[in-house]
Amino acid sequence: MIDIYETEFRKADLNLLVVFSALMRERSVTRAAAALHLSQSATSAALGRLRGLFDDELFTRTGGGVEPTPRAVELARRIEPALGLIHGVVTDRDRFDPRTARRVFTLGMSDDLEAALMPGLLAATAGLRGVRLAVRQANRNTVTGMIDRGEIDLGVAAAPAHGADHRSHDLFDSGYTCLFDHRLLPLGTPITLDDYLAHPHLLISYDGRRGIVDDILEARGLERRVIASTTHFAGAALQLPALPALVTLPTHAATVYAGALGLTTSPPPLPMPTYTVSSVWHGTLTDDPAHLWLRRLVEDAARLS
């Protein structure tokens, strides 16, 4: 049995931890107050008591709300699972029922994965009135940082870089596919390397300068003609019905865009790598019933993609 020092424990006030959790989730005193059905002044007062309790600023003001300090992020890793356990004891429930729950689940992924997974996710949650899904842009290099800061509940990325505190689950394998409008660019399929190099390309790249295709071509002493670049896969695909150009993008997204926009797909005319898309989360949430439900939801959507 844990030896509880009552005097110290009373100073903590579990209601303060609920306010802390809401501030981590909402990143705003105003929104946290609304979520908790408290006044803004009461929420601000609770934040003041939290700062005294933990001897840290915890949340600093920004233009759009508040941001947690490193100390707050570290506290959240322990407080959130603890609140979940306490809630289960108080309500005599250790399970999550999506039919009665009121919950926002935030996912972190790039827009190619959003295109592949969201149709299945939305179909699965369409009848759940209290469940809402939110997606934030993330990639393999940013996803675990967003998890650690409490910005997302679950990340999905290609080979996400993660540490000992995180857990992951492989969802599906993918590669690369060429996409174009056959009405504007009447090429045979599979497309030849000569055709690939003879026609203009849209580049999808975070820095706008080059992508994996350019690295592969350069190794062969070849070069393609890039006429524009974008950071979003959907942004490139949407141009193709009005532009005689090629786009090379992840196969799982190319399939979705081809069906939605009436575009043609083709294997690339040069060897391209394959990779595994995985979900990733903080290890403290592994046994949380709501998080387990979310992970299974994403796994089911991945099987349909």
Automatic annotation (TrEMBL):
The lineage of its organism: Bacteria, Bacillati, Actinomycetota, Actinomycetes, Kitasatosporales. It comes from Streptomyces cathayae. PANTHER family: HTH-TYPE TRANSCRIPTIONAL REGULATOR LEUO-RELATED, TRANSCRIPTIONAL REGULATORY PROTEIN. Keywords: DNA-binding, Transcription, Transcription regulation. Residues 13-69 form the HTH lysR-type domain. Belongs to the LysR transcriptional regulatory family. It holds the Pfam family HTH_1. This is LysR family transcriptional regulator.
